[in-house]
Specification:
299 residues; Nuclear Transport Factor 2, Chain: A; five-stranded mixed beta sheet; 9 helices; globular
């Protein structure tokens, strides 16, 4: 259980600027080097906070985050000071993280992250989605996440994190969020499965789930296999939809492998259809919980 607890601690650290960044490097490092010349953007605040976590810069952490920082990772206690007391774990293990994508929807910053040198926590490389909410004063106030092992060889030949990382079509954010919610409800929750081509492009669909091949045919093949094993996943509720332009992240609850799970699905849209998909599925624990906030609890 100790290792599981530490794993959960490390999930919070996804998106740190301690490692080389594929995206947002100059943006976040500029904030870290000099945040006094001009007010930091919300993304810069989150990047600076996470960099402070990785470097045990407790002064910056206290400046940027609320003391009653709300934690939804089930193995980490709520509150900033309890979290600060756990920072030596980072230094002892030398774990680093790389932010691949960072987007914003209102007060929420949502990220796609890789971390390395994580063997003591379950695997050498892992991938996570992290969400941070800023309060009305711009302080880091709340955190959600999900994580899984980074797989070297995938069914589609893609990694779990590669592909475009910059948003486009910002004026279509709300339209794409509506599409994503309807996609999950009609297709993944099974309300109108025959409408799949209304939401997913039949010409291009780049799949990043390591067990599923590209295209609509890859989805059909995966569904047929899971059904034959009497182990088809079941989405039961959409808890949150966050978007920036053509990228939309849905956070859902459901059942798989005989247990309750959280499903994070990131879609990229083009011309009203989903053309790319990344995801993380994590079982929701029921024992050894450090807080009672649950893995959802969105407003």
């Amino acid at each position: 259980m100790k290792n599981v607890f530490i794993i959960a601690l490390m999930v919070l650290l996804g998106g740190s600027c301690n490692a080389p960044q594929k995206s947002h490097e100059s943006e976040l490092n500029a904030a870290s080097l000099d945040s006094t010349k001009k007010p930091m953007s919300d993304k810069e605040k989150v990047g600076t906070f996470l960099n402070a976590v990785m470097t045990s810069d407790t002064t910056t952490m206290r400046n940027l985050a609320n003391s009653d920082y709300i934690q939804h990772n089930p193995f980490i206690p709520t509150g900033l000071e309890p979290f600060i007391k756990m920072l030596p774990v980072l230094q002892d293990n030398g774990t680093t993280a790389e932010n691949v994508r960072m987007f914003q929807d209102g007060d929420y910053i949502f990220m796609h992250n890789i971390w390395r040198n994580a063997a003591p926590f379950g695997a050498d490389e892992m991938v996570s989605f992290d969400i941070i909410r800023l309060d009305d004063a711009g302080k880091v106030a709340e955190h959600w996440d999900a994580m899984t092992v980074l797989v070297a060889e995938t069914a589609n030949g893609r990694s779990q994190t590669d592909g475009p990382s910059s948003s486009q079509d910002l004026e279509l954010t709300e339209e794409n969020k509506t599409l994503a919610r309807s996609l999950v409800e009609d297709i993944l929750m099974g309300k109108n499965p025959n409408k799949i081509t209304d939401y997913i492009s039949s010409e291009q669909y780049a799949q990043h789930n390591p067990s599923i091949k590209d295209g609509l045919s890859g989805i059909v093949e995966a569904v047929d296999y899971l059904t034959s094993q009497n182990n088809m996943f079941k989405y039961t509720k959409v808890h949150k939809v966050l978007g920036e332009g053509n990228f939309v992240l849905t956070v859902s609850e459901g059942e798989w492998n005989g247990a309750n799970n959280v499903f994070y699905d990131l879609f990229r849209f083009d011309n009203g259809k989903a053309v790319e998909h990344w995801d993380i599925i994590q079982q929701i624990p029921t024992e050894g919980l450090a807080n009672a906030n649950g893995m959802f609890g969105f407003d």
